[in-house]
Amino acid sequence: MAWAEKRGPWYRVRYRDADGVVRTTPDRYRTKTEALDAAEDLDTDHRRGTFIDPHDSRTPLADWAGKWRQTHQVAASTQAKYDHYLDVHIIPAFGHLPLDQIRRSAVKHWAIGLRARYSLATVRGIVTLMSLMLTAAVEERMITVNPIQGLRMTEPRSGHAPRSAIREVRKRQVPTGDQVLDIADRVKILGGEAAQVMVITAAFTGMRWGEITGLSKRNCHLDQLYLQVDPETGALHEVRGAMWLGPPKTQTAGRRIDLPPFLTELLQEVMDGHDQEQGFVTADGRWHRRSNFARRLWRPACDGDTERDWSPVLPGAVFHGLRHHHKTMLDELGVGDAVKFERMGHRMPGIAGVYSHVSDQMRQDMRNRLQERWTDMTDNRP
Question: GO annotations under biological process (predicted)?
Fold first, then answer.
């Protein structure tokens, strides 16, 4: 039972917690009537089973974020993204506010401001993370509801907002076959044949950056025309300068990747060219760092280089665009969905995912089509 108690010129409300300890709410009241009404509200919440300790609900978001980070377990790369969103965006804007003082309208207004500087996907990620923390606070009975539950950021309809207020979304640059070869040739000049083969491998397998750079020689079954992405150590991870081998992005990313004959020959030359455990390494035998590869090889190859009198091939393109190129290639070649989903490391949805299977004949047909595509791409090259 809660009760009102006079304290100097003010009234306060006191109550017993679950352990029988007398506690005081953080609010002060000018009159006894106001205090008694607040005490009655506490008692009502107790009877309904909806009581929230006022001290918990007044926890600043920054304090709750610190506790939440310690218990929310995610991959290191995801944690790095979460830390950035929290430290750069969420905590500076709302960290000082108690949990029960966060308002949906304020968050939405703030998110609209972010949209002027960041992509829609980034803003959605920031808002989703904040909602995730507030939902956890509800589950811990620190607040009764998540004030931004279901808040969705969408683009305004045409004419409803000035385009100058919205950061334009850059369309993903997906290279054509000729552009892939042009980029690969330039990468060879800058980084050697192994780097060139990395680009070609990504374009003809759809492997992610971490899967290619984390590819172990023991998982290169070139005599049997396939690679294996190990489900435990098949990807190279890089977070805040630290590098290690770990699982690929998803469970289905641990997969077999069939190879056309031309690619097995190129890969064999790379594997025979050094004695390191990983298939693709730098000239001095180290793991590839994404930023170094991008700065020294990829960006000049795509964007052009005035010192070498190179004109741009595909400005702004990223290495991941090679994965998109490969999926487009499979579509153009008429490869079946079962093969495509397995090859890309995605789970096929619905009943098709239950009853569709990849046969040896389907694998061979795809190898033949990829080999033909390579021949078509390179026959007329100088």
Answer: DNA integration; DNA recombination
